[in-house]
## 1
Amino acid sequence: MRRIRFAILALALALALALAGLVLSSCGEGGEDPLIGNAAPTFQLPELRGAEIALSQLRGRIVIIDFWATWCPPCLFQIPILNAIRESYPADEVFVLGIAVDVEGAAAVAPYAEENGIGYPVLLGDEDLAIRFGAPGFPYLVVLGPDGKLAYRHAGVVGLSDLQEQIATLRDGDH
């Protein structure tokens, strides 16, 4: 009986994530998503290394923000994709940023980031900030244009080619 309940719960979760992905994948096309084109919520958060980073400091760059948590298994799959983006573009043009939402803070996030080779800055945030950006769950990624406006958002693990396409569009000024 316990196995059946677990299977039903897992199936329901998978369906909910798939539906969220379908809804968000259609967002941004034809102006259907009310968040696309709006200024991103502002924040100033501590980085794992101690410095604070404010979103306003990154104005003029394409900013990729990945909301994630150590307890989120799919979030792990996003790391190599974001590391590849970070290594492929100059930081003064495209800035990759992770925002961990773990309530345990640095005590949980720092060892996880080191063990999994996160090569981009990780800030300590919370779920409320992720919700302000429109997150239905984790991982959740947003891309901001150089003007600080939300240009793209994606629930679930995003593909490398999808991110490269979004960056190319913003670099060409077609947003």
Note: The chain is about 40% helix and 20% strand.
## 2
Amino acid sequence: MKKRRYSIAALLTAASLALAGLTGCTAVITAPMPGAEASPAAGTKEAEVLAPDEEYEEVFAQWKEDAPALNTLVEYVESVTDESSPDYIPPVDRVAVFDMDGTLMGELYPTYLEYYMLAWRILKDPSIEPDEEMLEVGRTLRDCALDKSFPEDMPMQHAIQAARAYSGMTLNEFADFVTEILLRDVDGFEGMTYGECFYLPMVEVVEYLQENDFKCFVCSGSDRFICRTLIEGMLDIPYENIIGMDVALEATNQGETDGLDYLYTDMDDVVRTDQLLIKNLKMNKVLQIAQEIGRQPVLSFGNSSGDCSMHNYTIDNNPYKSAAFMLIADDEVRDYGNAEKAEGLRTRWEEAGYHVISMANDWNTIYGENVVKTGTFHWMEELADDRGVEEAATPEEENAADDAAADEAEATEETEDAADTENADADADTNATEVEETETVETVNKG
């Protein structure tokens, strides 16, 4: 059983009961605990005494009780789900949107999961033959990950080359490729695979909202189909509630035929193409939410500037009470956060009207107690043997190559000498012939 914390209403109830016991008075309880029945009748002097709530205190095992953002969220949910509250939101409009990397799962090991996937696909996967443009991006992903020195346009470079690198794969083949990556151990940690690198406190948030009739959506900058495969088995979010980067799809045998003119048959499958449709970051998240969900969210969760437009769309001009939450990666002990940078972001996010979630101060755990940060990476070793770059020769191979080159040079010199001798002989013959012809002419003229 997970440990849950008390709601504000539960704490008030307990305080009321305690005060009644001290004064000898009979407590009148008007605020039921979540999930409990209301008092028998208004104005009654006796009420059923509710034990400390086992049901509610199980919800947030991975959170610290005094986490400000969590208390804000709980108060919000209790308010908007109470039909007697002026903040009440009908279930149909309880829409919550979540960023993926850095919000629901880790992104600092040492970089985004989808960056690792593409680097491995380009530099190591024997099933494709990348061209120079693709190789350049693969090497940049590899070489810049550890020190975060990516070029400013890396998100778009990645998106374009990812579309090309996975082109031609059926959706099932792509899901199998992603699954194989997810089974690998996470670089920089012990006790966790890539498929398990979810923030457990945020998993609890999703489950809590779903229990209160919120529809949860993922709105990620990562590939939509990566997110679908990644979430399966970890979160109860259906495929149709997952929004992400998109490429165009087509039928196996469709070729250049327009979809309006092509008939899908049992000889076809749905395959990815190399045509990038959208990189789902920043303002594009707002457009995708409006287009695919069709409702303005009332809750938004993110961790970076790429989520600010989504947050503002949620909290600005909303007919319902709304809130936005930003995670800051300030845990340098259990994860690869940067506390100094995170504090600067805290100020920025709070000034923008967002509630800040501190990984270091608000969470009891991040990935689970058995997951340990190692501080060491095998990133460069794993991706070192990229294609298109010849391996360094051994000393023996270098000597053999030098000998072969010397033999070739000697043979070439001998050939050139022989050619020179042959040319000299030919020139001598030509000169002798010319002398003979001249003497013959002179003899004829004398006669």
Note: Residues 1-52 have pLDDT under 50 and may be disordered.
